[in-house]
Amino acid sequence: MAPMFVGYADADGTVSSLVLDHYGEMAGSGVSMVVVENASVDPSGAGSPFILRVDQDRYISGLTQLAKAIHDHGALAFLQINHAGRYAYMRERLAPSPFKTGDIVPKEMTHDEIKKIGKAFAEGARRVREAGFDGVEIHGGTGYLIVQFLSPRTNHRRDSYGGVLENRMRFPLEIADAVLQAVGKDYPVGYRFLADEWLPDGLHREETIPLAGALEERGIAYLSVMAGTYDSFFLPAYLEEERSEGYMAHFAEAIKKSVSKIPVIAAGRIQSPATAEKIIQQRQADLIGLARVLFADPLWPRKAKGEVAEPVVPCESTCALCMKRVGKGKPAFCSQWDKERRETFLRRVGEKEDGQ
Ligand SMILES: Cc1cc2nc3c(=O)[nH]c(=O)nc-3n(C[C@H](O)[C@H](O)[C@H](O)COP(=O)(O)O)c2cc1C
Fold it and tell me: How far apart are CA 248 and CA 212, in angstroms?
C-alpha cells in the first residue's frame, strides 16, 4: 500500500480507533507491506489538523498499537514521516524561501531552524522504530518541505542550501543521513521520491536522478516514485494524464535505471492486476504501490491472486472525492464503496448526509 492520508487521526494527532480499523483492513487485504500515511515530525509541519504525529514520545503508545494492528493482519508496517513546509495548514509556515502559497508568504528558514527540523526527522524516525514498525519512509514527494529545498522554483536561497543542485540536495541528504543515523544501519529507511514536479519551471529528471543515486549511496532501502505537487495536481494537463492506468510508471522506470541495487516502487492508478504485471515484467519497477486503488477495492490483492473471483472495483478516475474531502479537513471515504458501507462510515464519523 502506498501512503494515503485519510484524515482519521484524532485532532491531537494520536492514533484513533478509526485509524486502527482502517489500517487493519488495508493490511488484511493481502498486500505485503503497508506504508502508513505521512505523519508530522514537528508541530510546524502538519499538513492538516487530523494528521498523525510523531513529534513527541507520547505518540509512541498509539503508534505501537498501529504497528501491531498491521502485523496482526499479516503485512509489514512502515510509517511515512514528513514536514509540510509551505503547505502546512497553519498561517505561519516555514520554507526555504518566502515563496507565496495561496495568500500566505512563508518564513525563510534560518540555519538553526534547518538543523532543528533535521533533528525532528531523526527523532520522529526513532519513535517509529520504537513503536515496532518494520521501517520508516521519508516523505520526499508531493512538494513538501524536502522538495521545496530541492526545487529551484521554491528555493531561492543564496547560502549553502540554495543555488546549484549540489546545494539544493543538501537538505534532503542531511535528512536522509540524520534518519539513517537515528535508526541504525540495520533498519530500513525508504524514501518517497519525487521524479518530476510536472510544472514547466519545476524539477525534472535531470535534477532528480542525481538525488536518487546519492540516496542509494547513503543507504536508503527503496525509492517509492511519484510525480507532481499540490501546484500541479489540479492543473487540467495533470488531471487528464492521471486518468490513465499506470500514469507514473515511466517515472519509476527512469529512476530504476538510475540506481543499481535498491528496489523501486511504482504507483499511480495501477487499476488492474494486468497493468501491475506489465510494469513488473517490463522492469519499470520492482514493486507495485496502490493508494486510492486499494482504498476503492480492499480485495484488489486477493482478486489479483485469484483468491476472489470477482472483477476489481475501479477507483473512479473523474471522482477525486477522497482528495476533496481531506482537502476540506474531512475524513476520506470512497464513492465506490457500496451504500451500506458509506452510510456506516458517515455515521461513525458523525456526519448525517452522504455529502461531499
Ligand atoms: C487522498 C490522498 C492522500 C495521499 N496521501 C499521501 C501521503 O500521505 N504520502 C504520500 O507519499 N503520498 C500520498 N498520496 C499519493 C499516493 O501515495 C499515490 O502516489 C497516488 O495517489 C497515486 O496512486 P493511486 O492512483 O493508487 O492512488 C495521496 C493521494 C491521495 C489521493
Answer: 16
